[in-house]
Specification:
Distance between the termini of chain B: 65 Å
Strand content of chain B: 25-35%
Helix content of chain B: 25-40%
Strand order of the largest sheet of chain A: 9-8-7-10-6-1-4-5-11
Largest sheet of chain A: 9 strands, mixed
Distance between the termini of chain A: 57 Å
Oligomer: heterodimer
Radius of gyration of chain A: 21 Å
Order of helices and strands of chain A: EEEHEHEHEHEEEEHEEEH
Structural class of chain B: alpha/beta
Chain lengths: 258, 320
């Protein structure tokens, strides 16, 4: 079974996040890491490869050259190879442009199963899977908390506002997994060493048959107009040192909550 | 603006968020609504009473299950044939997938997690909180159609008077749109305590480490006279009952005191508890988003903090 996993390199969680006042977009200039939610998709891909008794796991990403390090982490976890679509023209791509690029990259791969992770709220990937499935004309199931592959069918257990659904879809299919689906492994030292020699292919727009005006801001249909400042919940008191337990009790007493 | 609102329904009732979104769109301009399923025709009157000029109804067994892809086909056809310039949906599990599929199908701009929508001349402007809601960003669309997903809980439904029409619509579905099948819909997992009425809630997340970690939450909740809640991740992992889940796909609660133990504070959880009077957060990770919207945050291990806090609360209650 061939499994493709769409991943994204995002700024380190510990890095202070800011919006670039010029572009009005999230500043992504610092260190990049594998989106923590994508790690669940990578883990699921590795488990499904194992369950199928073999096959190939390829991670596919769109991003700057700096994103290569994040892809190396997916390789260190056990993915077989990586594909990075990188081009200066891609900056500022919205979900429409991003799905156009990734759909082209996935068409080259022809996988049996396409996995995505649930994304952070500021990510262009937040609902990317459904757009990708539409472009590829494949069935799509999101929020997967359990995935079973058998007889060319994917069976997904997933949670919605009303309870749990069980949904079946024939392969190839696009499945977006939730962070409840598994407990991801950590890369082993052996895995990290092996990742250095695993294939990491760079693709340009031209190699995907796309023009610069189909991607980036030119190929997007959403804009960021202005930044404002909403009222924030009154500055939290954070206790890092000392007796946090006593601090909580005192706080509850002060507010007559205990 | 000529808008189309997608209405979600469950067990014979239109969803509150869909009706709220319908009211929001109707305040901005001519708005129709689309309703698809089996036996949904009777819901059209309710949609009309919330601002739909015309309610477009599709009665079709292919729409019986709440799956997105048939709905993408239906709405795409309506947009192309009736010339809607905007499609507005509530940001639910189903509608988010419908909206993204529709964006790709119509090559239309999609803005999501919006908490407001307004017109600036002819331009539609969406309001989106960013960076853990610390900044409000105005977003727009270039060209039409424009697709907007509105954060659940952002708009209250309002009944209004007015004439409205009901029309039947149908669509042919391509193979890929019918490929995913519902095997079993909305089966609940084990039931638990009532959360909405509790004054105090002690909520646990992945940081508890194991299902057994919830005993620490239960003991603190008992000492405070409160109830126990859980995040989606731990409910899905089977650590706690679905009925105790707070968040986007769970319950929305607003107790006087909400203690978040080992919860990172993802947006999916936040929308279910941000209305709480006082929020106390305990988390090992100083950078956890929960520290951005709590009143008191303690950086520490819940395994250590919870038992000691329970003990102090008990002592105080016993006059110690």
């Amino acid at each position: 079974m061939k499994i493709a996993i769409c991943v994204k390199a995002v700024p380190e969680a510990a890095a202070p996040r800011r919006i670039d006042p010029q572009s009005k977009r999230l500043d992504r200039s610092g260190e990049l890491t594998l989106n923590p939610f994508d790690v669940y998709a990578v883990e699921e891909g590795l488990r499904q490869r194992h369950a199928a008794g073999g096959g190939e796991v390829v991670v596919v990403s769109m991003g700057p050259e700096r994103a290569a390090e994040a892809l190396r982490r997916a390789l260190a976890l056990g993915a077989d190879r990586a594909v990075l679509v990188s081009d200066d023209a891609l900056a500022g791509s919205d979900i429409l442009a991003t799905s156009r690029v990734l759909a082209k990259a996935l068409e080259r791969e022809q996988p049996d199963l396409i996995l995505l992770g649930q994304q952070g709220e500021e990510s262009v990937g937040a609902v990317l899977w459904a757009a990708l499935a539409e472009r590829l004309r494949l069935p799509c199931v999101s929020q997967a908390a359990e995935l079973t592959i058998a007889g060319g069918m994917a069976t997904v257990e997933r949670q919605t506002e009303f309870g749990y659904d069980t949904i079946g879809a024939p392969l190839p299919a696009v499945i977006a997994v939730s962070d409840a689906i598994n407990q991801p492994r950590y890369p082993s030292l052996k895995g990290i060493m092996a990742a250095k020699s695993k294939p990491l292919e760079r693709l340009t727009l031209a190699e995907l048959g796309l023009d610069a005006n189909e991607v980036g801001e030119a190929g997007s249909r959403t804009t960021v107009r202005a930044l404002g400042e909403p009222s924030k919940r009154g500055g939290a008191r954070i206790v890092e040192d000392g007796d946090g337990v006593r601090a909580i009790l005192d706080f509850l007493v002060e507010r007559s909550l205990v | 603006m000529k808008a189309l609102v997608f209405l979600e329904h469950h067990q014979g009732a239109l969803q509150r968020d869909s009706l709220g979104v319908l009211g929001l769109a109707a305040r901005l301009g001519a708005t129709d609504a689309v309703l698809a399923g089996e036996g949904v025709r009777d819901l059209a009157a309710e949609a009309a009473a919330h601002g739909a000029a015309t309610v477009l109804v599709t009665e079709d067994a292919a729409f019986a299950a709440p799956l997105p892809q048939p709905r993408v086909e239906l709405i795409a056809k309506l947009v192309e044939e009736c010339g809607y310039d905007s499609v507005v949906l509530a940001n639910t599990v189903l509608s988010a997938d419908v909206a993204a599929g529709l964006a790709a199908r119509l090559e239309a701009g999609l803005n999501w997690d919006l908490t407001g929508l307004r017109l600036d001349g002819d331009e539609l402007v969406g309001e989106r909180p960013a960076l853990q809601d610390s900044v409000l960003v105005d977003v727009g669309w270039s060209g039409t159609p424009r697709i907007a997903l509105i954060r659940t809980g952002s708009c209250e439904p309002k009944r209004r008077d007015g004439e409205s029409a009901v029309e039947n619509v149908a669509v042919e579905l391509p193979e890929h749109a019918l490929a995913a099948r519902m095997v079993e819909q909305a089966h609940a997992k084990a039931e638990g305590p009532k959360l909405e009425e509790a004054d105090v809630i002690v909520a646990g997340g992945r940081g508890l480490g194991t299902a057994e970690g919830f005993e620490l939450c239960e003991e603190l909740a008992a000492a405070l006279g409160g109830a126990v809640a859980a995040t989606r991740a731990v409910v899905d992992a089977g650590w706690y009952a679905y009925s105790a889940q707070v968040g986007q796909t769970g319950k929305t609660v607003a107790p006087k005191l909400y203690i978040a133990a080992g919860i990172s504070g993802a947006i999916q959880h936040k929308v279910g508890m941000q209305g709480s009077g006082t929020i106390v957060a305990i988390n090992r990770d100083r950078h956890a988003p929960i520290f951005e919207f709590c009143d008191l945050g303690v950086v520490g291990d819940v395994q250590d903090v919870l038992p000691r806090l329970t003990e102090l609360v008990r002592q105080r209650r016993n006059g110690g």
